[in-house]
Amino acid sequence: MDPVRNPFAPGAGQRPPELAGRTRELDAFEVVLERVARGRPERSLVLTGLRGVGKTVLLGELRSMAVRRGWGAGKVEARPEAGLRRPLSAALHRAIRDLAVRHRAPDRVEEVLSVLKAFALKANPKDAKLRDRWQPGIDVPAAVGRADSGDVEIDLVELFTEVAELAADVGTGIALLLDEMQDVQAEDVSALCAACHELSQSGAPLVVGAGLPHVPAVLSASKSYSERLFRYVRIDRLDRSDADRAVIAPIEREEAEITPAALDTLFTVSGGYPYFVQAYGKATWDAAVRTEISEEDVRLASPEAESELAVGFFGSRYERATPAEREYLRAMAELVEGKDEPAPTAKIAEYLERRPSSLSPARDALIKKGLVYSGERGQIAFTVPHFGRYLLTQD
Predict the structure, then answer these.
(1) Which domain holds residue 61?
(2) Is a pLDDT exceeding 80 seen at residue 151?
(3) Is 371 contained in some domain?
(4) How many domains does the chain have?
(5) Packing angle of the helix pair 106-121, 85-100 (nearest 10 deg)
(6) Are residues 371 and 287 part of one domain?
(7) Where is this region: Disordered (predicted)?
(8) pLDDT at residue 107 in the model
(9) Is residue 33 a contact partner of residue 174, using CB atoms and an 8 Å limit?
(10) 383 and 376 in contact (C-beta within 8 Å)?
(11) Could you tell me the pLDDT band of residue 272, with boundaries at 50, 70 and 90?
């Protein structure tokens, strides 16, 4: 069929043509927005799940919902090698600009921006030369004595207070959307939890985070009360009916059809993971020669989809691993026979004929790289669906 009309969209964070299976999460967030609008306290939200289940897409959808309700909203993607102060400043700057168009007191907006600038400038090292100092692009003088102590926990509380008051002035809220939450540095995790806790009863900016399944453990290790501070929502693969809808709806909009047998095969090869549904759906559309997509079309297209996944989705991650880390990954894959299941760390050591302590550096490095996670003590699992199956095909 015409590749120009191909409705499927496999891409990192790219919204699929049919956002199926996420009605429960969207409805719950609508309740959160309404509660905050009425001045009722509400916990911040954290989405957790494997890669490829659509956390980033859902985060973007939640941001759009907040903006449609007149909220200020900014998005941050955490990086393990960078602190949170600088990207957080940029996200809140955008959120404040959203509110500024509705606020009738420009002087008040400038006051908040001056506090934000003071907070942002502390991202510069103390000994940085003037020419090397980062400037946040906020065209007001920096405040003095407010959010500029250099202690990120103190500064974040003061900044959140200012931003929350600005939002309250116009009868709305502020949403801070934080992706890849497991990569937030320990100091910043502690500060974020403390700031949310300090302001949880006073209309603080609503933090909506997304990350890998072990994010709750990361937050809990920083602040024990984080279990009560955030509401965790597990995002998983689509069930059969939602996976079918994610395929059928965009195909029908292009005046084409797909047979039940083709849907069966497509669900089997994709496992219901949203990213894989899009990848196999796109390849199948391109392979089909008639407007009714058949089971044979899916089978013919599968090698092409798998080849693209091997390079862009699996291979790019595998290449980041050292030889010792690849050995660990391969042992995991062989122990679970390529299935999306956790492997006992003791069994991995036994399989490799190594002492468990000697494998700790490789395991810890893989966790930091976001390739594996530990959902419970003594267990380790891949963060990427079908990664074990991919590894078993590699020499």
Answers:
(1) 23-234
(2) yes
(3) yes
(4) 3
(5) 170
(6) no
(7) 1-20
(8) 87
(9) no
(10) no
(11) very high
